[in-house]
Design a protein that fits this description.
The complex is a heterodimer.
Chain A lengths: L1 E11 L2 E2 L1 H8 L20 H6 L2 H17 L8 E4 L5 H11 L8 H6 L4 H10 L5 E5 L4 H16 L1 E8 L6 H4 L7 E8 L8 E5 L13 H9 L6 H9 L3 E8 L2 E9 L7
Chain B lengths: L3 E10 L2 E2 L1 H10 L4 E2 L12 E2 L19 H10 L4 H11 L5 E6 L5 H8 L23 H10 L5 E4 L5 H14 L5 E8 L3 H9 L20 E2 L1 E8 L10 E10 L12 H14 L8 E4 L5 H15 L4 E4 L1 H4 L6 H15 L1 E2 L15 E2 L4 E2 L5 E7 L3 E9 L3
Parallel strand pairs in B: 4-8, 5-6, 5-7, 11-12, 11-16, 12-14
Antiparallel strand pairs in B: 1-2, 1-9, 1-10, 3-4, 7-9, 10-17, 13-15, 16-17
Helix pairs in contact in B: 6-11, 8-9
Classes of the chains: A alpha+beta, B alpha/beta.
């Protein structure tokens, strides 16, 4: 399966936006995991913005960045959402409430607790009636999302992938640790080259090969401890702009090899 | 769209374990809804429970996976010769070429609910007996089934609230189309837990008494639990004229509200239109519609509008929620399996607990089951976040 990347969105500590992050990911300037405040979900109407949990702000920010640089219309773009868990703070609140003798759950908490919370808010924010789906493969959730979005793009011509993770608070966070306080990544993927293509991914089926590591130790820590950050070998390759093969972590005995090549300005490989 | 065939399918729900018992209860109109609560609510709610899950502990070496959701998953894997069919597929294809695409809404979150009640009074820590990755995490279902069946291909869990296991059919078909795998096991499992019981109660949509889909006096849902699996393959010599075919899947988003459906059912209509287009069929060629029909006031009204605007007043429709309750993440695959049984038996199931159909409704709603000529079935599933999915089935011998 061949996929052409038309837009990238990125948000993590020390990685604010794709343009500003490329020199760090290419190893030209050092990585500093500086915390920045989460952007507001400006795409959402104000009543929905008040109800939207934090994880939605991450997903919408990276989705919007990828969408803007691809210049595609969200109304024609199916979207795939991938994360290891849902909205951690919301799940924790519900678990605490259910431990009470007479639980009084908040209806907003309940609808924000679904795994597809970001997908729901995304379609409301963009007004898109296109299909969205939300997938999970624990630590391999990014690769799962890439496969799902790739297969979707083969049929619809293009698809948006948004992968993200945020930690649970304690005590659940003590037994399921997510390293980064937030990590979001988005790609607009097309099945054919266009003037907007920046790189081409060739995906084979899975392999037993060990996943590629990231040379920068701090970024490798990020990759290892945050499921959505398992995309970092791909991001580093895209920032280096050197054709190469990277293997992404997916499932036991089934990693995902990606052959990355680059497109010249004429839209030809 | 797909040309994929059901090599095998299995089902467990409040109306029985396996196709035979399920079909017998569909024929007799026997509901599986009961008044005895698993987790008591402040109202006299009914629920659709699968008997014996509370005691059927997973055997070694699966004890880390033990939770209500996986006990039900295992019971469904053991029905209807599904495991034999999976073994056959493992011999036919390389093990890395069989995909696994399952749906759930709440996975094994019941384990975490119970663990929060047993936090350490001093440190607040959760008991060491909680296996988050193997039970609560959304992927836990996929991980358990993949290991239990010895599958080695691509796998993920789709979690789009109540539409999860219907969407799994779309994912599986796309992945086979894209050449990522040659065959796929699709399914869904959802079990009762406090999160959904108290969550839907907080939204004010749980019925007192059993749910009454499409009834003039309907007043909300009854939550149920259930599981189903379908082995999807390209046609081969092992299939026969009566094998069920997946003809098309249609999807859409409401882009309206997180927990309320679009009142005119616009998103639902788009999903059904997309499914017809994918299947290459026109509305007149659908002989039965298995509705989402959860028995909420707004939801049933929106679906009546959507279905009647596309199919008119004649095509027989019914919801299965009066049999099983709303099985949430499993409702997609259960609806598809009820549709498959309707094709197999040439029988359109009725709607237990529905007494008087809402006089404002237009569609041809079937309160009582009946024999009919059924060539094509459409199954609707809608979920939180405005997710809509319609699946169209036929038979191989057409």
């Amino acid at each position: 399966m061949k996929l052409f990347i038309e837009g990238i969105g990125l948000l993590a500590p020390g990685l604010s936006g794709w343009p500003a992050s490329q020199d760090v990911l290419a190893g030209i300037i050092p990585y500093q995991g500086t915390l920045t405040p989460l952007p507001m979900a400006t795409l959402l109407p104000s009543n929905e913005r008040r109800r939207a949990p934090e994880i939605v702000r991450v997903a919408l920010a990276v989705g919007l960045e990828a969408l803007t640089s691809s210049q595609r219309n969200p109304a024609q773009l199916p979207a795939v959402f991938a994360s290891s868990g849902g909205e951690g703070n919301t799940i924790h609140e519900i678990m605490c409430t259910l431990a009470d003798a007479e639980p009084a759950l908040s209806p907003t908490h309940f609808h924000n607790s679904v795994h597809n919370v970001c997908a729901g808010y995304w379609s409301i924010a963009t007004g898109s009636h296109q299909a969205t789906t939300s997938v999970c493969a624990y630590d391999g959730s990014f690769a799962a999302g890439l496969l799902e979005a790739g297969a979707q793009a083969q049929i619809s011509g293009a698809a948006l992938l948004i992968a993200y993770d945020m930690p649970y608070p304690a005590p659940l966070g003590d037994i399921r640790s997510i390293g980064a306080p937030f990590f979001g990544i988005a790609f607009v993927l097309a099945s054919a080259p266009s003037p907007m293509s920046v790189a081409c991914l060739s995906m084979a089926t899975g392999t037993e090969t060990e996943p590629t590591l990231v040379p920068n130790p701090s970024l490798e820590v990020l990759r290892r401890h945050t499921p959505a950050a398992r995309c970092l070998p791909l991001l580093c390759a895209l920032a280096e702009k050197q054709p190469q093969v990277v293997v992404l972590d997916y499932l036991p005995g089934y990693s995902l090899p990606l052959e990355i090549s680059f497109i010249n300005s004429l839209g030809e490989k | 769209m797909t040309g994929l065939v059901f090599s095998a399918f299995s089902v467990v729900s409040p109306i029985g374990a396996g196709q035979q018992e399920t079909l017998a209860n569909l024929r007799m109109g026997h509901s599986g809804l009961t008044a005895k609560p698993l987790i008591p609510l402040p109202i006299a709610a009914y629920s659709g429970q699968v008997d014996g899950l509370t005691d059927s502990v997973l055997p070694d070496p699966w004890s880390a996976y033990d939770c209500r959701n996986h006990r039900l998953a295992l019971r469904a894997l053991l029905q209807d010769d599904l495991m034999d069919a999976v073994e056959g597929a493992k011999r036919r294809y390389h093990p890395s070429r069989i995909g696994l695409f399952l749906g759930t809404s709440t996975s094994g979150i019941l384990e975490t609910e119970q663990a929060y009640r047993h936090r350490d009074p001093v440190t607040g820590a959760l008991p060491k007996t909680l296996h988050y990755a193997e039970t609560h995490n959304t992927y836990a279902l996929g991980r358990f089934v993949r290991e239990f069946l010895g599958l080695q291909g691509p796998s993920y869990v789709i979690s789009t609230a109540c539409a999860a296991s219907a969407k799994a059919f779309a994912s599986a078909a796309r992945m086979i189309d894209a050449g990522v795998c040659d065959a796929a096991l699709v399914g869904g499992v959802d079990t009762l837990c406090g999160t959904t019981l108290f969550g839907f109660h907080a939204l004010g949509v749980i019925a007192e008494g059993p749910c009454r889909p499409f009834d003039a006096e309907r007043n909300g849902i009854s939550i149920g639990e259930g599981a189903g699996f379908v082995l999807l393959e390209r046609p081969h010599g092992g299939h026969h004229d009566r094998s069920i075919r997946l003809l098309g899947v249609g999807e859409s988003s409401d882009a309206y509200h997180m927990s309320s459906p679009h009142p005119q059912g616009e998103g639902a209509r788009k999903a059904m239109e997309n499914a017809l287009h994918a299947a290459g069929l026109c509305a007149e060629e659908i002989d039965y519609i298995n509705l989402h029909g959860t028995a909420t006031i707004i939801g049933d009204a929106a679906e009546d509008k959507a279905v009647s605007s596309l199919f008119g007043k004649t095509v027989p429709c019914s919801s299965s929620k009066g049999f099983t309750g709303h099985t949430l993440g499993a409702s997609g695959v259960l609806g598809v399996i009820f549709g498959a049984l309707a094709l197999r038996a040439q029988f359109i199931p009725g709607s237990p607990h529905t007494r008087t159909i809402d006089p404002d409704f237009v569609i041809n709603y079937q309160r009582i089951g009946q024999t009919a000529s059924v060539r094509h079935v459409l199954c609707n599933t809608f979920g939180f976040g405005g997710v809509n999915c319609s699946v169209i089935l036929g038979q191989a011998g057409e």
